[in-house]
Amino acid sequence: MPWPSRKRDKGAVADKKEPDAKIAKTEEETPDKEEEEKSTKAPAGSSKSGWKNWKKTKESDSGGEESKITYCHWLLKSEPESRLEKGVDVKFSIDDLKAQPNQTTFWDGVRNYQARNFLRAMKLGQQAFFYHSNCKEPGIVGIVKIVKEAYPDHTQFDQKDPHYDSSSRKENPKWSMVDVQFVRMTKRFIPLSEIKAHHLAHKADGGPLKNMMLFTRQRLSIQPLTQEEFDFVLSLEEEKP
């Protein structure tokens, strides 16, 4: 029996709405709660010590050379709270993942072309942050890894699934998914508000989160991270909130 769809991001391929007839089978246009509620004001806090300490450590490790900018890690959004979509509860928290056989599941239901392309770019063994989205306090709760690269998402052919796509053909599937496995919980919950504080500071001082897609492409449920972005965010788990 298929598990409920994992991710809930809303957005078009470009930053504009398509006509209603064309978005019926893509991810919806409504942004997640955190984007609606938090995007208009900057959170309290500063990233000065975190960024400078992280930069000093990285320069020491690399001899002061900047890392090559490539996307080699990911951020996956999923909803930890119950919400019905076409009669199906789309809730899927990191605890739900941990409860799966071998703590592994498929990441299905993506209906945004850019997010789908990111799924198709994922490589075996790459790690991703598990991000709780569309909830009271969104943020990063754990780490997963890719254990099977992209293959056709079966839910696009299931008429009973809320993400059924009548325009997709089995000989040329439009949508893909990957398999992910739980790695570990982060040492503490890393809230969106804290990450945003660093992002805003880095926009001013050139830190690693200055272009983080969590803030430049907010609606995407599948987002790439550079090595620098991943390392910096991961370093936050060692700091006191």
Automatic annotation (TrEMBL):
The lineage of its organism: Eukaryota, Metazoa, Chordata, Craniata, Vertebrata. The keyword Cell division does not apply. It is found in: Nucleus. Residues 1-65 are annotated as: Disordered. Residues 73-235 form the EVE domain. Pfam families: EVE. CDD domains: EVE. This is Thymocyte nuclear protein 1.
